[in-house]
Specification:
It contains 12 helices and 14 strands. It is an alpha+beta fold and 368 residues long.
């Protein structure tokens, strides 16, 4: 699309492509002389993805093979290698692990952890919307993975349900760091004529061609949270230019108007994350995760959240507050016990002192 002279381009997804003919690896063929193809599990404008068997380690993996027309671009190949190395350094339970990178017959490939599950987008298509507790649990996990990437100095730049896998035990795994950016390489005054990302999920500053930041990822998480809670996107338009304009100008609808069962506090969190100004959102995914942990009912998210998200502040129990309050009229038995110990200690030392004194003739207590 093109808006005000700026071209916005959606990042390719791994959804099946229609009418596209390209070379594919047949079942039982080898990639890199080590990975035996089982079957294709996805294909899109950027790559084909296969489930394969690692013959050396005897484990199943996912192999992403880039398309030939992209390999022909040396700049793209160099950038993909750099980003593959960056993603390869991310080791977290909520991020798909990268195992290997190489090339076979001139075609680059990336070997990743195989996740036996479905895309979050597929899950939403099947269910429409998720229960509040399940949506909060999944978002806490996603925030843990994205927050880890932020602390490692990476911005994902293309967070969307298609890039989040959900396993059979409801474990969220973030994938596709193909257009991730290193924070250290992003100048604050950067402008882009070509905007990478998915128009349904990218932040207003991305739509305007500004530099991405962790707050941009947080905005995308807000769109995903809105979609999980309501079963629909906050902004919908016929084309990418219309979507970009809505992200830039329009206020998101109230989630509770779509589903009144959504708690008001969770609606406030969602709308804050969808603020147009980055400084009005939570700055990082870790902050959003901490807020959601505080919101979640007791025990919710505890078994599903992964990663070093700091726990919310722990407040003193009410019973302790009453005990320390003099006006409460209750007896502080701890203070009474300490006082008795002090009396016993002094009372026990006095006879000992008298006995020691009487042993010496000079003791003033000795009678003449």
């Amino acid at each position: 699309m093109r808006e005000n002279g700026r071209q916005a381009r959606a990042a390719p997804s791994l959804l099946p492509a229609v009418g596209r003919v390209s070379l594919e690896h047949a079942p039982n063929s080898l990639i890199g002389g080590r990975y035996r193809v089982i079957h294709r599990i996805g294909s899109g404008g950027m790559a084909h993805v296969y489930q394969a068997l690692d013959l050396n380690l005897q484990r199943q993996v996912a192999v992403k093979v880039l398309r030939e027309d992209l390999i022909a671009d040396p700049a793209f190949s160099a950038r993909f290698l750099q980003e593959a190395r960056a993603a390869g350094n991310l080791v977290h339970p909520n991020i798909v692990t990268v195992y290997d990178f190489g090339h076979d017959a001139g075609r680059f490939f990336l070997v990743m952890e195989f996740v036996d599950g479905v895309e979050l987008k597929t899950l939403l298509r099947r269910r429409g919307r998720l229960p509040v507790e399940q949506a909060a649990d999944l978002m806490i996990q996603i925030c843990a993975g994205v927050g880890y990437a932020h602390r490692a100095g990476l911005v994902h730049c293309d967070l969307k349900p298609q890039n989040i896998l959900v396993s059979a035990d409801l474990r969220a795994k973030i994938t596709d760091f193909g257009i991730a950016r290193a924070l250290a390489t992003i100048p604050p005054d950067e402008t882009n004529e070509v905007v990478w990302g998915s128009p349904q999920y990218f932040a207003p500053e991305q739509a305007a061609g500004g530099p991405p930041s962790p707050a941009s990822d947080v905005y995308a998480l807000g769109v995903i949270l809105f979609e999980m809670l309501t079963g629909q996107l906050p902004f919908q338009a016929d084309d990418s230019a219309g979507l970009a304009e809505l992200h830039l100008r329009a206020a998101p609808p109230s989630p509770r108007q779509i589903d009144p069962s959504i708690p008001p506090s969770l609606e406030q969190i969602t709308l804050k994350v969808l603020s147009k100004e980055p400084s009005a959102r939570y700055r990082t995914a870790d902050q959003l995760g901490r807020v959601l942990i505080s919101f979640a009912p007791r025990g919710a998210g505890a078994t599903l959240a992964s990663g070093p998200l700091p726990a919310p502040p722990v407040h003193a129990p009410e019973a302790h507050t009453r005990r320390m309050d003099p006006a409460a009229g209750s007896v502080d038995w701890l203070a009474v016990g300490l006082g008795l110990l002090a009396v016993l200690a002094v009372g026990g030392l006095l006879p000992l002192w008298l006995w020691a004194c009487l042993l010496y003739p000079s003791c003033p207590l000795n009678l003449p």
